[in-house]
């Protein structure tokens, strides 16, 4: 007897996104267990950025998130390795952000997942786990005592200190950096005057320069875009172990400024208080039998602005694969591709966030020169686009079979404008259903015929597009291209490769009108 198809431990952004993705796949009963009794108003992420925004657009859900946003989209200019990378010169910046404070984001994701049928139960903590060949059982502690819940799979979306990861015995190797950054906005107190050039004149203290000040103890910065508000920043090395779920206090900020700058800076009322600690960690494997990990439970990055993107995209990659396993048609090895693909994506995010540590922690003239040089390079369009794609996580091309055959295989599907008998549409619109799509771009009945055996699992479309990049595309629900036919590719090679890809990703069809080939072992 199972109580749910999938238990999701943790109703943070990753767990809620996964619940929504399982709901979109249909016919799956996800049960989300969250130890906190309600969504907490802790100021963590300020918004979404990177490729997840594209994905939400392809899901037809971006407007819902935009409606919940608290501010207009900022100019595309982002901190990166102690510099600011400026994409404003590009008409289509590869990196964009949507202001949406994390508690609001979680409310939107919670609402969306519930609409799609997720059962989200708060105030229940998972304290034990066991699994056998068919099921996984969680020991759950709640206000009414301890209970057991059983499901086919369990996904630990329970954050940086993941209990699921520990209970499953999955190592989480990496580095914890001593650097602690604090960022705050406070009203300007009476004893402080903001001078015309941005410097502060502090009664009893004297003048404090606008911008960054390096001291023996760390870095302090002050700036303001609003004359009534001070933006404050400190960065220092500490040995204390902070819990990100415990928000920073004004006293903590004041003490940090005193340590770094050596003065007692009077502070007004805080409107924002955040603390960042930095780790570079990634689990060795995202799966152990029927237990999987996603989000901060699987990876921690030593730079801000990338973690949500990585975690939410984990859920997008995993959702349809888990649903296929629950529905019973998942081909051999499908669930393991979650580990292969998202481990690679996490490693890529670690690469550029660790590079940022080296860049931002240098204050000697050599490090300043290195940053200056990089900024010079980042004025040119090509390096700017490359770094933008890296920041957004959109340069990842999964090394899928056939990867060498066509440049689009493994990549996120481009949003082609499509012309069909029923009018204009786009790849993004076709993906709203979150179902796999076979897209014939060259009126290839030979390939449509092959795809037709899987029509109960995939949507088949025929369309024209200007400068078609391929004769046909097979797009997975996570919007990555599983297979592509080259222009005018002969039927014998194209149909065979298409059939292999269909078996590999979407299993054995219910009934086949073509001879059954050996099922490839993915
Ligand atoms: C100050 C700060 C600023 C940040 N800014 C950004 C930013 O600008 N951009 C960005 O992308 N990221 C940012 N982050 C990181 C971002 O907040 C995390 O990456 C994100 O919360 C991870 O989501 P998650 O769902 O994987 O884990 P969490 O959000 O940690 O959610 C895990 C959930 O699991 C629950 N849980 C834990 N253990 C159990 C258990 N045993 N049983 C049941 N439930 C359990 C927890 O209560 C929690 O609700 C910031 C973080 C901090 C601290």
Helix and strand arrangement:
Layout: E1 4-9, H1 13-25, E2 30-34, E3 47-49, H2 51-58, H3 62-68, E4 77-80, E5 83-86, E6 97-99, H4 102-115, E7 119-122, E8 125-131, E9 136-142, E10 145-156, H5 163-167, E11 174-187, E12 192-194, E13 200-202, E14 206-208, E15 211-214, E16 218-223, E17 229-237, H6 250-261, E18 270-282, E19 287-288, E20 291-293, E21 299-300, H7 307-327, H8 334-360, H9 365-377, H10 381-392, E22 417-420, E23 423-426, H11 427-430, E24 437-440, H12 445-452, E25 459-462, E26 472-475, E27 481-485, H13 491-506
Parallel strand pairs: 1-2, 1-10, 2-7, 10-20, 24-25
Antiparallel strand pairs: 3-6, 4-5, 8-9, 9-10, 11-17, 11-18, 12-13, 13-14, 15-16, 16-17, 18-21, 19-20, 22-23, 24-26, 26-27
Residues 9-15, 33-36, 44-46, 102, 125-126, 157-159, 163, 244, 274-276, 295-296, 304-309, 311 line the site of flavin-adenine dinucleotide.
Folded structure, characterized:
By secondary structure, the protein is an alpha+beta fold. 31% of the residues lie in helices and 27% in strands. The strands form seven sheets. Strands 1, 2, 7, 8, 9, 10, 19 and 20 form an eight-stranded mixed beta sheet that branches. Strand 9 (136-142) and strand 10 form a beta hairpin. Helix 1 runs parallel beside helix 7. Residues 516-522 have low confidence and may be disordered. The protein binds flavin-adenine dinucleotide. The site of flavin-adenine dinucleotide (FAD) has 34 residues, from helix 1, strand 2, strand 8, strand 18 and helix 7. Residues 9-15, 33-36, 44-46, 102, 125-126, 157-159, 163, 244, 274-276, 295-296, 304-309, 311 line the site of flavin-adenine dinucleotide.
């Amino acid at each position: 007897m199972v109580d749910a198809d999938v238990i999701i431990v943790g109703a943070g952004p990753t767990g809620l996104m996964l619940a929504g993705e399982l709901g979109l796949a249909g016919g799956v009963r996800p049960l989300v267990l969250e130890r906190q009794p309600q969504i907490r108003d802790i100021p963590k992420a300020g918004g979404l950025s990177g490729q997840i925004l594209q994905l939400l657009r392809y899901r037809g859900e971006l407007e819902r998130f935009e409606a919940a946003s608290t501010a207009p989209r900022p100019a595309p200019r982002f901190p990166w390795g102690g510099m600011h990378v400026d994409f404003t010169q590009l008409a289509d910046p590869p990196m964009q952000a949507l202001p949406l404070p994390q508690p609001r984001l979680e409310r939107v994701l919670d609402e969306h997942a519930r609409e799609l049928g997720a059962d989200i139960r708060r105030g229940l903590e998972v304290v034990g786990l066991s699994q056998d060949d068919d099921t996984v059982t969680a020991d759950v502690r709640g206000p009414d005592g301890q209970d057991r819940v059983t499901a086919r799979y369990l996904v630990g979306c329970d954050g940086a200190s993941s209990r699921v990861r520990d209970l499953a015995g999955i190592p989480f190797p990496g580095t914890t950096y001593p650097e602690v950054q604090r960022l705050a906005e406070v009203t300007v107190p009476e004893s402080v005057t903001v001078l015309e050039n941005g410097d502060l004149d502090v009664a009893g203290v004297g003048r404090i320069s606008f911008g960054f000040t390096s001291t023996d103890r760390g870095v302090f910065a002050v700036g303001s875009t609003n004359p009534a508000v001070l933006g404050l920043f400190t960065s220092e090395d500490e040995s204390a172990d902070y819990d990100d779920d415990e928000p920073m206090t004004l006293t903590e900020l004041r003490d940090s400024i005193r340590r770094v700058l050596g003065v007692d800076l009077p502070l007004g009322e805080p409107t924002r208080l955040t603390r960042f600690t930095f780790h570079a960690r990634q689990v060795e494997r995202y799966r152990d039998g029927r237990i999987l990990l996603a989000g901060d439970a699987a990876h921690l990055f030593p730079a801000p602005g990338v973690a949500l993107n990585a975690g939410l995209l984990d859920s997008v990659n995993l959702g349809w694969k888990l649903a296929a396993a629950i529905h019973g048609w998942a081909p051999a090895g499908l669930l393991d591709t979650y580990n292969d693909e998202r481990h690679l994506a996490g490693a890529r995010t670690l690469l550029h966030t660790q590079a940022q540590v080296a860049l931002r922690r240098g204050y000697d003239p050599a490090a300043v020169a290195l940053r200056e040089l990089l900024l010079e390079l980042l004025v040119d369009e090509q390096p700017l686009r490359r770094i933008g794609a890296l920041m957004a996580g959109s340069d990842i091309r999964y090394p899928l079979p056939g990867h060498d055959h066509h440049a689009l295989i493994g990549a996120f599907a481009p949003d082609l404008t499509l012309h069909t008998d029923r009018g204009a549409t786009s790849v993004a619109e076709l993906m709203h259903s979150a179902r796999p799509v076979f897209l014939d771009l060259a009126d290839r009945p030979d390939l449509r015929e092959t795809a037709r055996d899987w029509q109960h699992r995939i949507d088949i479309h025929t369309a024209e597009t200007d400068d078609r990049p391929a004769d046909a595309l097979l797009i997975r629900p996570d919007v990555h291209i599983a297979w592509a036919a080259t222009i005018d590719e002969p039927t014998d090679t194209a149909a065979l490769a298409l059939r292999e890809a269909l078996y590999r990703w979407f299993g054995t069809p219910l009934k086949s009108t073509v001879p059954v080939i050996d099922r490839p072992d993915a």
